[in-house]
Amino acid sequence: MAKPKTQFVCQNCGTTYPKWVGKCDNCGQWNTLVEQAAAATGKSVVARSTSSGSVLNVQTMRAIAGGDDVKRLATGFKDLDDVLGGGILLGGVVLLAGQPGIGKSTLLLQVSAAIAMSQPVLYVSGEESAGQVKLRAERLGAEQNENLSFAASTSADDIAATIRSGHYKMVVIDSIQTLALDEITSAPGTVSQITNSSNVIIRAAKQSGAAVILVGHVTKEGSIAGPKVLEHLVDVVLQFEGDRYGGFKIVRAIKNRFGSTSEAAIFEMYQEGLRLVENPSASLLAERQNADGSVVLATIEGTKPLLVEIQALVNPTSFGYPKRTASGFDLNRLNLLIAVLERRTKLKLSDKDIYINVVGGLKLNDQAADLAICMAIASAAAGRRIDDGLVVFGEVGLGGEIRSVRSVDRRVAEAKKLGFIKAIAPKTANADSFIKGVGDLRSALIDYLQK
Q1: Per-residue model confidence as pLDDT tens digits over 412-430
Q2: Residues in Cβ contact with 142 at an 8 Å cutoff, skipping those fewer than 6 apart
């Protein structure tokens, strides 16, 4: 009997090899190749494809039903509905990814309970037993809902058949990495299993018109585990970010076929589950003590203005090489800003350890944080504080110039709402007496650092 042909597939990028190698030449990862059965190929496949098939039934765009009439399911969280573009679209597939323990299952069980108030919902778990999910449902107050059903399964075929039955308007699958198809011999979580299982699930969702939410694992680097094609297949990709041990947690869309990717929902974890933070700026600044190294930044999370405290600590280094550490801010960007501070001002930081912290566990991706980071470092290094009523925002160029940023009006409105009296910002944004424009980094430090 002939030995079945096998191939080796990279679990990171999906590249195939005829034999095992230690390093994938395509993505550069080590020890990611897994042996799998080779797919059938040859002239017979080509011959069948040229002789089979039928002419497609086409229609004009005007004749297609849907558009504004397509129904959406409300999640029970207004801000999360905004992130999704107005709610969960029937027939759409959503992928929710995040670090282990951050609250993905908690959030989805709360969403399932809210939708089950009016529509039948199925929660499928391949990771937990019925008893484990029941304990969480009791904690969240969702165990009495008659429309909320549960099943424990890792069979993608069985789950797809259940979706096609049409009994449920929404199905939650926790998680896609645990599913497997009977026809594929590789283990769950491999590239072939994730790709084919998600294809089967998505096809069933489109046929039945049921909304499907898939939970996705992440790698050590924070990217979604599995092939990149998984993100292309689904309609919406949500990223659940934040500190798993406390602080705020943010859900933002990194792909959305039905809405904007500029929205964000901010949550906080309690014993009874996740809650939306109504006024995150006030919560973040509630325990602030105005000392040297403390600066209030007016940033934007999605389309929401947010005031957050930036803290800096500068100490003489005990070793030959100074240490730079950043929590919630890009370390490479921090090193760049330190270089600008040394070159464009008279600060000497080459023999100093510098630590930066963004209060509340937030991760800043806003270029307008540059000026606040620089002023916090300068404040800590000089032992001088910034006035209580000041907020700061602006991008810093390599020449030390302060560049304009987006959404100035919303940043200013949020600062005024919380009682601040001035904003240190780029000169180009000086359309309001509230804004004190600065043209370069050196003048900002000289004018606004007090003893």
Answers
A1: 999 999 999 999 999 876 6
A2: 109, 110, 112, 113, 116, 148
206: left (phi over 0), alpha (psi -120 to 50) or beta: alpha
- Containing H/E element for 106? helix 104-115
Name, in order, each residue with C-beta under 8 angstroms of 303's C-beta and a sequence gap of 6 or more. Answer: 260, 262, 263, 264, 407, 410
Does residue 149 fall inside a structural domain? Answer: yes
Taking a C-beta distance cutoff of 8 angstroms, is the pair 269, 98 a contact? no
Q: pTM (2 decimals)?
A: 0.80
pLDDT in tens, 170-200: 999 998 999 999 888 778 888 888 988 999 9
Under 8 Å between Cβ of 190 and 34:
yes
Whole-angstrom CA distances from 436 to 293, 294, 370, 404 are: 20, 19, 17, 13
Half-sphere exposure of 249 (CA within 13 A, CB side): 26
CATH code where residue 372 lies: 3.30.230.10
Shared-domain flag, residues 253 and 108: yes
In terms of Cα–Cα distance, which of 228, 239, 174, 240 is closest to 201?
174
436/427 Cα distance (integer angstroms): 8
| Contact of 116 with 148, CB cutoff 8 Å | yes
**pLDDT at position 330 over 90:** yes
Opening angle at CA 29, ends 26 and 31, nearest 5: 120
Spatial CB neighbours of 116, under 8 Å, sequence gap ≥ 6: 142, 145, 147, 148
- Average pLDDT, whole number, for the chain? 88
Q: What are phi and psi of 93, to 5 degrees?
A: -120, 125
Q: Give the domain range for residue 265.
A: 70-278
| 163 Cβ contact list (under 8 Å, min separation 6) | 171, 201, 204, 205, 208, 210, 212
Q: Are 250 and 365 in contact (CB under 8 A)?
A: no
Residues 80, 205, single domain; the answer is yes
